UniProtKB/TrEMBL annotation:
Residue stretches making up the Anti-proliferative protein domain: 92-111
One Gene Ontology CC term in the entry: nucleus
Protein name as catalogued: BTG1 protein
Family annotation (Gene3D superfamilies): Anti-proliferative protein, N-terminal domain
GO biological process: negative regulation of cell population proliferation
Superkingdom, natural source: Eukaryota
PROSITE patterns cross-referenced by the UniProt entry: BTG_2 (PS01203)
Alphabetized Pfam families for the sequence: BTG (PF07742)
Amino acid sequence: SGAAMRTEISTAAAFVTRLLRAAGGIGEEQLRCFRECLQEALREHYKHHWFPLLPSKGSGYRCIRINHQMDPLIGKAAGMIGLSHERLFQLLPSELTLWVDPFEVSYRIGEDGSICVLYESPQPGGKTTKPLESRTSCKEEWRIGRASPSKNYSMMTVSS
């Protein structure tokens, strides 16, 4: 199942790496090492929590979250390149949610931000698992549990 989640994991790791690169001050070699360490940490963490037939099963477990606390997987990868949690909090959004699910990787910056899809792939066989799912995914709970209108956040890109 390692190969099954490779695209989703590399998409998620590349996204967090892009956020760090945009913040500046970290060398390309360090960023490459961070991305590889994060991919390895995610692969290990998701190993027994990846259900392509029920993509939203385990969604909460696979959710990467920065919310006044650093996500342990991001913290672990950053530690490998000598970045402290304090430094990470300066470089990354203070509110970031990243959902890494089979066939879809999406994120939200800010508690009321829009949910943006980074990667989406049709499920093999073209069948939808929605009717089988009685539980809502982590994302659905966020959408339902929010009464305030969404603010749109746009990714800032820095060109040299």
